[in-house]
Amino acid sequence: MKAVQYSEYGTPDILRFVEIDAPHAGPGQIRITVKAAGVNPLDWKLRSGLYRDFMPIAFPSGVGAEAAGIVDEVGDGVSDVSIGDAVFGLAVWRTAMAEQAVLTRWARMPDGMSFEVAGALPIIAESATRILDLVSIESGETLLVAGAAGGVGTAVIQLARHRGVTVIGTASAPKHGYLRELGAIPTTYEPGLSARIRELAPQGVDAALDLAGAGNIPELVEIVGNGLRVLSIADIDAPKYGALVTTSQGEHPEIALANVARLYAEGTFRLPIERTFPFERIAEAQERSSTGRVAGKLVIAMT
Ligand SMILES: NC(=O)c1ccc[n+]([C@@H]2O[C@H](COP(=O)([O-])OP(=O)(O)OC[C@H]3O[C@@H](n4cnc5c(N)ncnc54)[C@H](OP(=O)(O)O)[C@@H]3O)[C@@H](O)[C@H]2O)c1
């Protein structure tokens, strides 16, 4: 099968298309013929070597953590899906961008969901669900989301609104309409955030999520008044300021995936795809991702 790989850290031009043996589904796994695979910031961060000290990778490395497609092999012990079913899910670490991929966790695609949306959903559905749980956000509370216009923010806002939470999100001014459409109250991330939040939320903010990693954890802790309800997914220094950080998936991502699939089918969750790239243009997709300016998600469509 055709797959994308790289054999050293570097710029997007080190990505190579190679012919390799198709992987097989082990016990508790399934294999899919990939139709679409989501692009995440982690893809370019790993490739560039940015994370080489704490997430070193073995070469040659594949790319991608999530995909959607048609089941073509079912491992021992799997009984919830059959060959021919359309599913989306989390792939074996760094192997999703290939003609076939093995999934470790998955859910069925609901009617009406495109492969592009399905392929871009697993990471943000899992991450958003995990971090809302970790800050124990509840109905009636107010949540501040720093970096709310990207992929994870798009899911966080909608899932928090489903929980009855008021959401204030930071984004650059041109994306404030996008945040409002998702159900959040927008504000910019320029200096003076605390003062703006006091005006927008005179009742106070109960918890904050940092999705931007832009170095404002102390300010978020000050706004919330309790570091144990400030959580970052993008700043490993957050604990230095009394806040929390999370970097690994929860135990049951498949529950988050099935929940988002259900909400999507009901018409109460959506995922705007900023752009779909053909497989051959994965380098361009990673370049766009690395700008940190994506609204919603980028996705690779297999041809
Ligand atoms: N730890 C984990 O488990 C985990 C899981 C998933 C993702 N992540 C990480 O979480 C981060 C977010 O992921 P993502 O997929 O949502 O990224 P993304 O889609 O690339 O997010 C891009 C968004 O970030 C916004 N942004 C950039 N700089 C900002 C700033 N200083 N303040 C506020 N917003 C800013 C941009 O909005 P503007 O254009 O308006 O600036 C853009 O809409 C990434 O660093 C990713 O690697 C971690």
Automatic annotation (TrEMBL):
CDD domains: MDR_like_2. InterPro entries: ADH-like_N, ER, GroES-like_sf, NAD(P)-bd_dom_sf, Quin_OxRdtase/zeta-crystal_CS, Zinc-ADH_QOR/CCCR. This is NADP-dependent oxidoreductase. Homotetramer. Its main location: cytoplasm. It is found in: Cytoplasm. Transmembrane segments: none annotated. Residues 10-300 form the Enoyl reductase (ER) domain. It comes from the Bacteria. PROSITE patterns: QOR_ZETA_CRYSTAL. It comes from Methylobacterium marchantiae. Keywords: Cytoplasm, NADP, Oxidoreductase, RNA-binding. GO terms for molecular function: oxidoreductase activity. Its EC number is 1.-.-.-.
